[in-house]
Structure prediction request, 671 residues.
Amino acid sequence: MGRVGVTAPPRAVTAPAVGEGAGRRLLDRLDPHAWWLFPLPVVVFCAFIALFPVGYTLYLSVHHWISTDVVRFVGFRNYWQDVFTSPAFYRAAGLTAYFSVVALGIQMVLGVAIAVVINRGFPGKGLVRTIYLFPMMATPVAVAMIWMMMYNPTSGVLNYLLEAVGLPPQLWLSDRRSVIPALILLDTWQWTPLVVLITLAGLAALPLEPFESALIDGATPAQVFRYVTLPLLRPTLVVAALFRSIDLLKTFDIIYATTGGGPGTASQTLNLFIYQTSFRDNLFGQGAAMVTIFVALVLGVALIFGRFRRAAGDLA
Amino acid sequence: MDLFQTLVPFDGLQFSSAGWYAPLDEFMRLVPPGYDWDDYEPSTTALLKIGGKMVGVPLHSETQLLMYNKELFQKAGLAGPPRTFEEALAAAAKLHDPKDKIYGAVNRAKRVSSSYTLAPVLYGYGGRWQDDSGRITWNTPAAHQAIRVYAELIAKYGPPGVVNYHYQETWGLFAQGRAGFFWDSSSTPPLLEDPKTSQVKGKVGYAPLPAGPQGANPVVLAWGWSIPAQAPNKEAAWYLITWLSQKPQVTERAVKDMIFPARKSTWEDPAFKQALTTQYPADFVSAFREGLRTKAAGQANPWVKATSQVRDLISQVIIAAIEEIGAGRDPMPVIRAKAAETEAEANRIRDQDPK
Prediction:
């Protein structure tokens, strides 16, 4: 218990090798502590790496510091003025929730559907699977640039296609009502493959027997999917949803590279808002206060999923 | 560090309240023979003063120009460039042909970018960023009117999606020959006259910025050489600055690298004039020089520490106005409401600046 990894070598081996002298005796005395002494440097290093930024963020969050100024202690003013009573913060939080929840729903449904189809097997399945992973491998900023060109209201290919079939052209990223759906579409294109990948792995690991017995009992394919495949997949799906929701809440690159949070502030999600507060406006204290609350929110979501996963694990 | 470059209207209050600028007035008489301080365009040296004290020496000059597509103007039957903002609206209406993907006018609207091109309209209609006490004042009838004109021009006669247009997008659209006119920095013409970046080379007309009821008020900007207050070798830095900024050196850089000068004598220099005529039409030079004789130098944005934050606030009023006009409604109620709301927020931000 507790002595993970490095444990003290068995007594029987060290005892006969005892030499003379004080040095030897010191080593003998340290020997029982080897299990924590050896990993100590690494633990200290890791703790510093992990804890210093967190501690420094907390420190900044109760200070006022605009780049060139001296750092002034302001207590919880940043939290109060720029987070809890700030309409801009709530608006950004609402946009983040809107973006994340809708995108998560679409990506999960689509991802599972595609995985089930690919799992069926058909000629060229390997090729399709490989090609389908490409969007995920591309650099988000490059992807954002390409989509920005496709979304361009005057010269973009999407409006060209719409007009070709007689539909009215859209403003896509340039209208406050359509900017978030357009970003969701972009994110779905890039990240549904991750859900597919995880689901495929889950499907491959499922036992065959439940499917056989369901077929023998006369279940239709829809019933098999609903009452056998989905329940068995639940732990896998919770993991996929957890990965996606954390990433969605933190989405930055595609939004920054396309709209910069615009038009106006119509796509200014929390992460963009924090970035702009800290690095465009140089208000590091306010940014730190926001990021502290934001991390707490993301942690909360992760905990909820953790609970789901345990529940799902018990079922499986 | 003995020397740094600074753009005072943007960074000045932050840098000066941090005590970064060494005052340069005491050095001013230590200059090479023939240096001539009066040779500078007053608008450029005015920019580099904070509270009456000189903190930098201009290393170039930049103003705002109206750039228009002469071919499209001819097609629309327009004799010349608009000289007032009212004329600009009328001209844009004539030029606008969205079926052919030709748009009457384009200007910046994306987030922080638009305050720079709104400023001449604001001052043209008699508005100001701030009153004498420094309070931000864009919730005034003059400012409302300026915002309406600015928004109407690009909402009615601009490209769809103009709310996401930054500088790259505005000059890009114009360089494709798809916009009638726009106004922006005098650093744009080099891009428009380069066949690698422009399809309108040779078709661009340049004119002084349109005027409002209170005249034309282009924003002048000039990067400056400054010396940090903590610099160990202030005098050596000063000698380098004055050497770099004396007449022969400024002229040489202007002729060789087309660095537009802040010195009047360089604009009159035969070699520079010759270099200009091979690359730019004559109206460019006259519009540029007229643009330097502005009263609104340095009014690119309010004089606050959190420049970007405050610029973002005014842009929200413009965006809201564009959206109202796009929806076919009268923008004035929204402009008034949004201007009041963002002005209060901007003043709250400004109040956090140390006095």
